[in-house]
């Protein structure tokens, strides 16, 4: 049985149709103390890139192969947490997309340097 630090308990499924894309959870809310991780699935016949400007994980980018998946790995110990009890909804002004408040925007690109398909968010909770 997996330990809490290795459990992948959230799967952010990437769905890409033509030039449009979406994720099945927006925002993705992860519980840091529980050791939650994101896992991105790509059902499409071409690779995509997950790109963070500032990442709550060890890497700023993840290449998801065509018809493959990749895990984020654990949340960094120094990642900021969102401490608003009702978050992620409703958003406070200036709260979303702000990594200082535990909200991390990322882009899904048609890999490796293709156009941005969608700009979702990861929220880290304490």
Task: Fill in the keyword field for this structure.
globular; mainly beta; 10 strands; 126 residues; six-stranded mixed beta sheet; Immunoglobulin-like
Structural write-up:
By secondary structure, the protein is mostly beta strands. The chain has one domain: Sandwich (Immunoglobulin-like). The chain contains no helices and ten strands. It has strands at 10-17, 20-23, 28-31, 38-42, 48-52, 61-64, 68-71, 103-110, 116-118, 121-125. Strands 3, 5, 6, 8, 9 and 10 form a six-stranded mixed beta sheet that branches. A four-stranded mixed beta sheet has the order 2-1-4-7, with no helix packed on it. A hairpin with a 2-residue loop joins strand 1 (10-17) and strand 2 (20-23). Residues 1-11 have low confidence and may be disordered.
Q: Write down the CATH topology.
A: Immunoglobulin-like
Number of helices: 0
Which CATH first-tier class would you pick?
Mainly Beta
The helix-and-strand class reads mainly beta
Secondary structure: number of strands:
10
Radius of gyration: 14 Å
End-to-end gap: 24 Å
> Any guess at the CATH architecture?
Sandwich
Beta-strand percentage range: 35-45%
Helical percent range?
under 10%
The average pLDDT value, as a whole number, equals 75
User: How does the overall form come out from the CA principal axes?
Assistant: globular
Spell out the CATH superfamily: Cupredoxins -  blue copper proteins
Largest sheet: 6 strands, mixed
Q: How many structural domains does the protein architecture include?
A: 1
The run of helices and strands is EEEEEEEEEE
Low-pLDDT parts are 1-11
């Amino acid at each position: 049985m997996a330990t809490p630090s290795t459990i992948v308990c959230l799967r952010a499924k990437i769905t890409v149709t033509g030039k449009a894309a979406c994720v099945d959870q927006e925002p993705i809310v992860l519980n840091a103390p529980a050791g939650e991780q994101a896992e991105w699935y790509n059902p499409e016949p071409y690779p995509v890139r997950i790109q963070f400007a500032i990442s709550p994980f060890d890497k700023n980018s993840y290449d998801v192969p065509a018809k493959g998946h990749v895990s984020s790995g654990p949340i960094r110990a120094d990642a900021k947490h969102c401490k608003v009890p009702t978050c992620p909804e409703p958003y406070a002004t200036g709260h979303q997309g702000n990594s200082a408040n535990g909200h991390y925007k990322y882009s899904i690109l048609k890999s490796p340097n293709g156009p941005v398909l969608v700009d979702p968010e990861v929220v880290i909770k304490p």
